[in-house]
Known about the structure:
With 406 residues, the protein is α/β, with parallel strands linked by helices. The protein has two domains: 6-125 and 345-405, FAD/NAD(P)-binding domain; 128-339, FAD/NAD(P)-binding domain (3-Layer(bba) Sandwich), CATH 3.50.50.60. It is 24% helix and 21% strand. The protein has nine helices and 26 strands. It has helices spanning 6-17, 69-82, 166-177, 201-211, 249-254, 277-290, 292-303, 329-332, 392-405; strands spanning 24-25, 52-53, 56-57, 87-88, 93-99, 102-107, 110-114, 117-119, 126-127, 141-144, 158-162, 182-185, 195-196, 199-200, 238-239, 245-246, 258-260, 263-267, 270-273, 326-328, 334-339, 343-344, 350-351, 363-364, 367-368, 373-375. The strands form ten sheets. The chain has a five-stranded parallel beta sheet with strand order 10-21-11-12-17. A four-stranded mixed beta sheet has the order 7-6-5-23, with no helix packed on it. A three-stranded antiparallel beta sheet has the order 18-19-20. α1 crosses α9. The two termini are 16 Å apart.
Amino acid sequence: MVGAGQAGLATSCWLSRYGVDHYVLERRRELGGAWQDRWDSFFLNTPNFSFLLPELSYDGPEPDAFLPRDEVIRLFRDYAARIKAPVRLGTEVTRVGVVDGRFTVETNQGRWLARNVVLANGAFQRPRFPASAGNLPGHIRQLHSHDFRNAQQLPDGAVLVVGTGQSGGQITEDLLDAGREVHLSVSTCPDAPRRYRGQDVFQWILQVNLHGPEFGINGLQADHLPSPAARFMCNPLISGNGGGHGIHLRDLGRRGVRLHGRFEGTDDGGLVFSDDLPARLALVEAGFRERLGRMADAYIAAAGIDAPPAEPAPADEWLPADSGARLDLAAEGVTSVIWCTGYGLDFGFLDAPVLDKWNYPRHRRGVTEVPGLYAVGLPWLTKHLSATLSVVGDDAKFVAEHIAGR
């Protein structure tokens, strides 16, 4: 097993139940997976009720609450101990090759031979930067969200955050709370209400993932994606901080955040953004109701659930005074940029012809085209939530059963 995050540990738990000898190789020196790469004020976006891993489900008094980063890390360390996962820490896999129907696994701690290999090294592997990031002036401090921890890392001055996925929205709020002046480059990730039709919005998303097909609602199943590229679409703009809330870009603007369009590059000491901010904000605000909200409504109706009607979104026509199409770094006192531009998959260690043009393993329910090679914990492996605490355990069980059958 490559990786001891939630996917690796869940698969390890199932393999142990099926009596399959295995090891979990983890490059980090401490357990806790990619949660250790989140900023200091980070809270899970998913409520406590969403813990559905084998031998780890929430049964406490606050199912709708959210765990902070350090509690999440401790929880996974306790989980690994409870299931007696055979983890080898500080063991980085540098190559996986196939020889005579078996796998050679080369690591910084030596070479292994295995009948089966599970790729469980996560959905957050390689921080992505736009190519034009290298054109920014040298005195500008640049960080990816992967390396951001708190505002004290940054020099005095204004901060530009690029990207309004969940990380971009939450880091912007963190900087505002620290008293920083913030500019924000707006992408098209949809915002969403934290609660929808009487439940946390994640409850409906989870139910459509797990039970939607029973009622003919297949939009959150991987087999029904419009294209393979859609596996990398962004998630709704919500937060678990402060008891959980939605993040609305116009509200951030009213709080003083300077909104800009999509980042397009540099020009003579300034940054250039798309000149479509009003349309972009409208697209962000329509996204949830046109997709996830519509599927939730269809599921509620088909399943006969007694839920209150959806509240209409309040009309909001606030716009900034300027289009936000250009930013003069010196004039605005911008001294740092945080790139909240997501991650790319990285299987550079894998020496097997199994990756598609998006660097995603070709597979069927985690079983790849190479006999004995599996993948767990990737976005949209089988469902929208395949990389999350709620669904990764189901995918891990299927893979572990397949391995046991070999």
